[in-house]
Write a structure and sequence with these properties.
By secondary structure, this protein is an alpha+beta fold. Helix content is 62%, strand content 9%.
Amino acid sequence: MRGPHNIWRLIRTGATLERTGAMRVIMDAFEAPAPVRVTMRALAWPFKWLGVKGDPDMPPATRALTALGPAYIKFGQILSTRPDVVGEQLAQQLRVLQDKLAPFPIEQAKESIHHELGQPVDALFSEFSPPIAAASIAQVHKARDIGTGEPLAVKVLRPGIERAFRKDIDAFYLAARMIELLSPASRRLRPTDVIAHFEGVVMGELDLRLESSSASEFAANTEEDEGFELPRVKWNLSARRVMTLGWADGVPLGDNDALDAAGHDRARLAERVLQLFLSHALRDGYFHADMHQGNLKVSARGDIIAYDFGIMGHIDEYTRRVYAEILYGFIKRDYRRVAEVHFEAGYVPADQDVTEFARALRAVGEPIFGMDASHISMGNLLSYLFEVTERFGMETRTELILLQRTMVVVEGVARSLSPQINIWQVARPVVEDYIRKNVGPRAAVRDLANTAAVLSRYGPRLPGLVEAALIRQSETQSSPRRSNATATAGWIVAGAAAGSGLTTLWFLLA
């Protein structure tokens, strides 16, 4: 029965897209060829009356996805982080996607908490409010711990949301396969892979234990960050479908009048939010990837409070170094170095001309540095940079796209607080500090010690590994190759021995 259900969902989806005007917007974003446009609209138009009207005050794409329900809203939110797939214009519409739905009854929330935590709500909380916020996947209640009286935020998944998402995701896969069949050119955008990415993100968000873990890891990383607070996870009151955090009490970061009335320095807050994001991305490689005003507050003492950890970004240490060197090169206006970093990282194919690439980068950077402070944008710089690197054969890197998208959001938050903020001036000390600590002689010594420590752990296993390697080589290759294998094995042994010695020396010096 799954096939007919999926077809019906696609018919309803197409009818809604056509009725709201979103069909044309989406076709333009994906640069759909004429046959696909004609086919899709011909299939949708007869069923237009089955489509949902949605809110006419919203942009077409936002209007359609909001009308279609939670899975489509979440899909739109995630696509807003992939302008490389949907285009900047559509991504911009999706970034303002409303994630406000009608709440489900408080009785259902209490029943779910009882089932997950094994005790009735009255035994856990002295107070439990009606829902104060309702989103596509869950809703939030304000509560108070029955033992300590501490105010809490309790997040509860919508009843049946897992099953509903599973059905819609199956329909999304069918739609992706149809698009790939009708338009071979669309395969470069990998529609099926996009749905797989969406499925992975959503399935993670449908287990609130994973979000609790993200919140806990983020809190551990940022514990020493001045002027930054996170609500703590209450593990004894959290489970797969319930997550409980300390209550984030403060002024919404998007309410400038309230911030002014409370006596907060908005210019200083703007600097802090930008520097915190860069610090988390570069120092930790783990950052809040949804840092809009709705997820940020300011405490009474002026600290920034972040919450909602459903979307987190991760970049490995090597990528962080590359990213920092690129930013630092632009700050210094050393375009040759920025070009060399791209080649050294393998981002741009080696057969390209580094001098021509550096010249193209200069065309990106110089106009931005000629702007006044209110127009300088690191997010725009990264966007232009991706356009240039694409022309030189660089493949899309999803982790950098998410980083760039979050940078745009954070810049927007900073500018809403202080329109004249100089993004480069604020970012410079964070980037320079990272470069000083992680690029250069100190970093090389630390990397060598880490490598040596890893090699030394293989010491007891080396004889067996070398012998097995030599046997395999002798069975499959000629005598000259065996000599190479012997030499390779010798280097492994020497490397491990050196690693063990260097590790010992490292600990003695430390």
